[in-house]
Design a protein that fits this description.
By secondary structure, the chain is of the alpha+beta class. The strands form 5 sheets. A 7-stranded antiparallel β-sheet has the order 4-9-8-7-10-12-11, sandwiched between helices. The chain has a 6-stranded antiparallel β-sheet with strand order 16-15-14-17-19-18, with helices on both faces. Strands 6-5-20 form a 3-stranded antiparallel β-sheet, with no helix packed on it. Helix 4 packs across helix 5 and helix 5 crosses helix 14. The longest helix is centred in the middle third of the chain and has 21 residues. The chain is globular. It starts with 26 loop residues before the first strand and ends in a 6-residue tail after the last strand.
Length: 579
Amino acid sequence: MSNNEGMAWDLEHGRKGVGYEPQDAWETIGMKQDLGNRSDPLQKVFDYHQTTKHSFQGYARGPGYLDWATQPNPFRRCERARLIPLEKIPPTDEPLYDNAFIPGRIPPVPLNLRSISQIFYDSLAISAWKSTGESRWALRVNPSSGNLHPTEGYLICSPIEGLCDKPMVCHYAPKEHGLEVLAEFELGLWEKLCVRFPQNTFFMALTSIHWREAWKYGQRAYRYCQHDAGHAIGAISVAAAGLGWQTRILDDLGSDELALLTGTFREHDADAEPEEPDVLMALGPFGEETHVISLPEDHVLTFESLEWRGRPNQLSTSHVEWGVEEMAEAARKPRGSGQYERFHNPPKQGSLEIRPVSLRKMIRQRRSAVAMDGETRMSRETFYRILQKTLAVPGNIPFSTLPWKPHIHLAIFVHRVDDLPPGLYFLVRDPSQGKVLEVALTQADSWRRPFGCPEQLELYCLIEADAREPARQICCFQEIASDSCFSLGMIAEYEEPLELYGPWFYPRLFWEAGVIGQVLYLEAEAAGIRSTGIGCYFDDHMHEVLGLKDRKYQDLYHFTIGGPVEDIRLTTLPSYLDE
């Protein structure tokens, strides 16, 4: 896996080829680490990111094999907590898929048992079961690295018709599609907590169980947990929009406050794997805009003294420490610091045709492709349409959920797009970064807009060439990256935002990548093809292909979209027995 044969992309028969030489563990292409003046947590973040890079010389530290005896239980349950069953609502033709991405296009539905059931069913529930022989495993609406699902969901709400008579905190149990009641509290506390929010607001929170990913992926697991948190944020935002609701991250809260609100601060007698609090989101009807990004600290602190019920189950009998919890500690967020830089020059707004495609059918049928056929082609118009959906135009869903300006751009390997030459393309998602990127991407032949490109897309062809082999090599030699219509790497503005905001912004870069990934998953389904995220890639070789020579930008996630090869050995079963 670490041989070094034929690794460079020999563009135009060697004119642009760059060799890949062995390097020190603390060196990236063209520069040395210099972390002496940085605070300890930020230094740990930079150290972690560097040491968890895959390269042609070796992969990030991991188990090397799967210890099936300690495979984590994919479902967390809270023993002795009351379970409230939720409704299972089959997909219908309405609302239309494209309407869900236009703020306010879908009228808001009432807040009740059915709509709460729908939001979880469309964002975090099981979508199907797969089986082969004696093996059986669940797929979920929200994508996950290795289908390991480290992300746990929570509801914090006021009394809701048909659901509860008192404000409560619940953990979502996807296998049962139900809510486990962890705590109830007085209406007065809820009113003080939400004094600045519209009346029909409720909250959803996400946490991560790092061990679920570390069991398979070792040291790199923290990255994948954050991708999955981003996938879930995107899934919740789109599902909420299908109900006429908006979703906002309350990013002025600190990690400790999130732990109080979800009850994950508690220590338990059993050796239950800890949950790291990730994010709290406020949901409510469109038209009742709020810019509140926090909750009153004194009322949040009272959650520590609530009567908490339920004890989380242990997922594995033994564990291996990969340094993931140390990384999580370095990236924990203090209270405040949530005032982000916003758009200086936002992308232009474009209009797209509304297709007769069901939102909930796309959500429920979403799958990760395991292989591509190497033959399916895509029209240029479909390609441009998919890229337009990834733009963080102010107000557009799901990117309106994220309170910061976009920091992720797309480096795209075009393979099979009609009327578009194969090669390396680049989508600038924040136009204010355009000139800086032109300087940074030193391997580009030119910055030429492709034919027929919509005005609102800052898309450029950097190099015309057969891009299949470099795409395959960069993605750990996986042919799924070269057999697709196109694949891409998500290139993050990296060093500057971390120094500006702090080490806690590191996971948020992955969240943004995960939200983009969720859009790409759904867009592929709407186009009648399939996609998958790729977490295994050679970070610095991608930088080399682009000509990136310092830490200003970093590669955070890869993705591929094309014609899937279905595994006929697998049987698909319903998500729930009573469907």
